[in-house]
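Field reference: sequence -> structure
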Amino acid sequence: MDLTAYLEEAYKLHREIGVIDSHCDTVGLFENKKIGYNFNLWNEIGHLDLPRMEAGGVKVQFFAVYIEPENKPHTSLHRTLQLIDTYYETLKGLEERIVPVTDFGTLKQVLEGQKIASILAIEGGEAIETDLRLLRMLYRLGVRSFGLTWNQRNQIADGIDERESGGGLTRFGFSVIRELNKLGMLIDLAHLSEAGFWDVLETSADPVIVSHANAYTICNHPRNLKDQQLKALAEAGGVIGLSVYEDFIKESNADLDSLADHFAHIASLIGVEHIGIGSDFEGIDRPVKGLEDVTKLPNLTAALLKRGFSKADMKKILRDNYLQLFNKVLKRGKDPSFN
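Structure field:
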């Protein structure tokens, strides 16, 4: 796919608009100094670090706290707190380049300057056990996006690997949704079973995100959303962040054109107003060719421009769709406080 004629415009859009990426798993790399990774430096390993985010035009990055299976369920909270501490310790001293944000006002201020905004997310709600007080404590620690499950079943809901059971939200899960609405925390439906997806849309007073998934009609991976789900997500004011993971894009021989098929299908189905980017960098072992790391994100923009998406469309996809949703949900959030 020859993108030469579109790359200059793509890089210009990334410089002027910037990119919001709704999912990466890089917090897990923050701990791995032994393998030679350093978030402050340009690394030859991994998909994402601060210099490469700057080069790729990322302006807002969601950093997910992913709990490894060996920590579930009994040490989930312990591991979550370790990773949250790692996140803050890693960003300490980098305030001139990247700023953790917890409310929409601060996010807007950061976007007006040259810094990157980081948002702390939970991927899988095992850490809160069956106690809403623990959810409120995570909010006070700066968490602003909450993924209810990973692929397995937990005390909140069934994940996508439990889809044969037909299970959705548990009784406790319904109370979690109401509490997330009350707090002003983003609800992330990635990895959730289809029954749980419908339960959340029927319960949540706020629009939701699906931080990293693609279109099931184009690639029938169970993590992707079916057309009826995409339509309902849009009707509820939600946004889907499309992933660069090969397995979510095409059964074999996935490329940038294949990924553009997902964007084009979803845009034709529900409009560009409900599409964003959710790379899943560091959470995947096979990013699609042409998007090997965060510096290559302008290639995606160029591919979509070539496909016929306008500059106005790209402004929505790269940034504005998420901002509109954040304004509805995060505007109630305030800086973490124990008052």
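Note: The longest strand covers residues 58-66.
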